[in-house]
Amino acid sequence: MTEALGQNYGHLFEEPLLKEIEKVGVYKKVKQGDILLDIGEPIAKMPLLLHGAIKILREDENGDEILLYFLERGDSCAMTFSCCMGKKQSEIRAVAETDAELIMIPVENMQVWMGKYPSWQQYILDSYHTRITELFETIDTLAFMKMDERLLKHLQDKAKVNNDEMIQSTHQEIAYDLNTSRVVISRLLKKLEKEGKIQMYRNQIKVIAL
User: Fold this and answer.
1) In this structure, is the dihedral angle defined by the CA atoms of residues 189, 193, 197 and 200, taken in order, positive or negative?
2) pLDDT digit string, tens, across residues 135-150
3) Residue-range definition of the domain harbouring residue 112
4) In what order do the strands lie in the sheet with 53-59?
5) Domain total of the chain
6) Are residues 134 and 151 in the same domain?
């Protein structure tokens, strides 16, 4: 854990803070598709991502999901920090987009570090800013983009966080992320393929237009 922590966060945090993270943090390994945090669960720890990618989802009153943003290595989720500080239940669902490795930080330490380490305070503030920007992009996508444009952007985002132009997803999984039907996704994927922006295989999609 020490090496991975230094590689991902050594340029962000002071040495004493890195040592505290190593001391109190709990190393966790998850498989693609695992739910790290579900809606309504109490939050006692905040993740620092060492490897892989996590997708953050929101659910409406009918149980339909919408993808908010992705977390990559070196990232954390400011929404979990906010809920931790307020001792609230989670309002998001965090699902492993890929196999991932994380360090889980107890809430008590996060609160102390806000006043103790300037680098931690800056990291949390930067995380808020990044996540808010990504939420604005999600809102813009929903409000102003056609569904085929949303689909292509979604595929491009998945390819980038996975560092792989080949995406391992079924049409139904993509439909869940975009809160639409599998039939619509299948039709639009064929359209994008005809336009030369993707190539489709069995449960795989190659993103050409990156």
Assistant:
1) positive
2) 888 888 888 889 999 9
3) 2-142
4) 35-37, 93-96, 53-59, 65-72
5) 2
6) no
